[in-house]
Each structure stands twice: as C-alpha cells, then as structure tokens.
Design goal:
With 406 residues, the protein is of the alpha/beta class. It is built from eight helices and 26 strands. The N terminus is likely disordered.
C-alpha cells in the first residue's frame, strides 16, 4: 500500500482538528532562519491583507494584519492592529494595540494594555489588564495571579490563586480562587459567584450590582463514601462508556467510508503482528512527547512540534476504534458464527467490549494503555509496510516493461 494514501486519514483528521481549534489560517508566514537571532518585526508601514503566521524568539507586530494572527515565540509585543483573531503561544505577551476578534492562547505572562474586541480565552501564569486595556466581550482565564484594572464589558470567568479586580465588569463574574480582592474602582454589573475558603476583601467604595455568593470548596472525605456518590459515579462511568462506544463507531463509519483501505491495512498489521505492534506502540507513546519537547527548543521546530503533538493526541482518539475492531474480528474468528460475519457487527461488538473493559477499576487504565499502544504500533507498521525499496521497485518495472531488442 502507498504510504501517502495511508497518511490520508491522519492528515485529514489533523486538519479537521485545526479547523475546529483555530480560525481559518492563511499561508502568509514570517519565520526566523535556524542560524539568526530569531528577531521578527512587522513594521508600522506594513499591511498584510491575509492571515499571518509568525514564529521566532523576539516578535514585535507594529503593522496591520487584515486577517487572523497566529504567533509561536518567546517574547511577543503587539502594537499594531489585527482585524481578526489573535492566537499566541509564547512566554511573555504584551498587547498594546488592538485585535478586533478574539484573543486566545497559552503563555507564561500576559499584559493587556490595548483592546480585545472579542472574547479573551487564555491559560497562563499571570494576567494583567491595565487601565488602558479593555476586553469588549467575555474573559475566560486560568492561571495563578489575576489583576484587572481595565474594563471587561462581558463576563469574567476563571480560576486563580489570587485575583484583584479594580475596574468595571459588565456582566458579572464566576471565579474559583484562594483570595479575591475588590478595589475602590471595582464595579461589577451582575452577580459575583466565587468559590473560595477565604472571605472576599472588598473596599468600601467597590460596587456589586448583583448577589454575592461564596461557595466553600468541597472537602473530600476519604474515610467514607456516600452511597449516593457511588451511584452517581457509576452513572457517569456508564454514560461515558456509552458515549465512547458511539463516538468510536462513528469514527469507524466515517473512516471506512472515506478510505477503507488504510483502515484495513492497520487491521492486517494487528492480525499478523500483534506483539510487534504493541512494542512499537509503547515506544511511540513514550518517545513522541520527548521528541516534541526536543524539537520545540528550535525556532523552526515549534510548528512541527505542535502539529506532531496534535497528531499524537489524535491517534489516542482513534485507538478504541482501531483496537476495538481488531478485538471484534478475533472474537468472530473464535466463535465462527455467520451472524457476526458483518464488518459493522464486528466493529460494534469489539468497540463495546473494549469500552466496557476500560471502565474496570485499576485494570481499565492498563487496558486503555494497551489499546492505544496497539493502535500506535499498527499505524507505524502499516506506514512501514507501504514503503517499497527502490531496488524492488526497479526490478518490478523491469519485469513489467521488458526491454525489446530490435
């Protein structure tokens, strides 16, 4: 089987994941070469009429981007204007300019001194919204420290160790934290719901135009577990298994409808070489994250590492489908009933058995790990089997096209 055809489902699914996780990306790229300092600057006179991807160490955007902006870097400063969404993966980020759309990403520290025209959704260590900063819609934040001195026109949600709010919040706040402080300029137009073991510290001038509700964090009782909790846990476990069965079966239907041969190739490797599949799969599960981290330290390797990690997660997602169908086929071989001699019956039977087995306490984790390893290994072996040595291809061509002597 041709290796490029084998990659079709993986690449297609990875692209689907990119579509759902990020806006439509452009093909304008700014990137540092491997040997230079990694400094990237978009000057004030530059206008990019497209989506833009930038990667480097020090990145400064002073110009205008008429589209979405995606950045991979270390220290990022955005002084210009972005007409679409801004997505940043970096160490330290400062927004002095304007992004008309959403602002999303993961970073160590972020400082908002400009305007976010849409929603702000970030995972970070510390967030600071300056007096000159503004978030026009909702802010969903997670980190260690939050300081809000600029207005959030929508709702403020998040989880932090500590938070200080000293500005207007347009539609209430829902927070989970250790300590919460409202400064003299705080004005929350809506309810304030917070989960904390400490009481709110509120300045006398602070205003909350809604109900203030404090919830004590739940305390786990390791000595006894109520029967109601046990039954609730069992319900969610059952529901999760059913959802897993349905999702895995849908993946099988879509995959076999689009490119059945690639799926069959992986099933052939599992049937012929189950132990090598398991071994190679375990190696891939362990080595892939390490390789992604090693590649991540290089500038050019950042987008490659992110894509590889997304495919890595994707293979985990399809593992119950691949391994479940293999289990169903083996059961079919053992039982030898004609009623099971249908692909969809084998798929549904095997997936159901695997999903139920994964819910077994303690043992379920190892079953799930083995299922994932078998899928990784089958993919590796199927890709390897699709390769033909150049010499073999040459001789095949010679046999198919014999030389005609005149």
């Amino acid at each position: 089987m041709n290796r490029s055809k084998m990659l079709i489902p993986v690449i297609m699914a990875a692209l689907m994941l990119l579509v759902f996780c990020t806006p439509a990306m452009a093909w304008q790229v700014m990137g540092a070469d491997e040997g230079d300092s990694g400094w990237q600057k978009l000057g004030t006179e530059v206008v990019v009429d497209d989506d833009l991807l930038i990667f480097g160490n020090e990145i400064q955007v002073d110009g205008k981007v008429n589209g979405d902006l995606l950045i991979f870097g270390q220290n990022v400063t955005i002084n210009g204007v972005v007409s679409g969404d801004t997505i940043v993966f970096a160490n330290a980020v400062t927004l002095n300019g304007t992004t008309a759309g959403d602002f999303r990403g993961a970073m160590q520290d972020v400082r908002i001194a400009g305007t976010v025209g849409g929603n702000m959704t970030v995972a970070t260590n510390s967030v600071s919204v300056e007096k000159t900063g503004r978030i026009a819609k909702n802010a969903t934040l997670a980190g260690s420290k939050l300081v809000v001195n600029g207005p959030v026109d929508g709702r403020l949600d998040g989880g932090f160790s500590s938070a200080v709010i000293n500005s207007g919040i347009g539609k209430g706040a829902l927070l989970k934290l250790n300590r919460l402080e409202l400064g003299p300029l705080a004005s929350i137009n809506g309810p304030l719901d917070y989960t904390s073991s400490n009481e709110l510290t509120k300045d006398a001038a602070a205003v909350v135009n809604g109900k203030i509700t404090r919830t004590e964090p739940p305390v786990k009782d390791t000595a006894t577990t109520p029967a109601s909790a046990q039954s609730g846990s069992g319900f969610f476990t059952f529901f999760g298994a059913i959802a897993g069965i349905v999702a895995s079966f849908i993946i099988w239907l879509i995959w076999t409808a689009i490119h059945r041969r690639s799926f069959e190739s992986m099933q052939e490797q599992l049937a012929d070489r189950p132990l090598p599949s398991l071994g190679w799969g375990m190696l891939a599960i362990i080595a892939t994250p390490v390789a992604c981290l090693l590649v991540l330290v290089t500038i050019i390797g950042i987008p490659i590492s992110v894509m590889a990690f997304m495919i890595y997660i994707l293979v985990f997602m399809i593992s119950s489908t691949v391994t479940g169908c293999y289990i169903g086929a083996r059961i079919n071989d053992y039982v030898k009933k004609e009623s099971l001699r249908r692909p969809w019956v084998e798929a549904l039977l095997g997936i159901t058995i695997l999903q139920i087995a994964c819910t077994i306490p303690l043992l379920g984790f190892w079953i799930s790990l083995a299922a994932s390893a078998l899928c990784f290994g089958a993919l590796i072996l199927a890709l390897a089997a699709g390769r033909k040595p150049l010499v073999e291809m040459y001789y095949e061509k010679e046999i198919q096209e014999p030389e005609i002597n005149s």
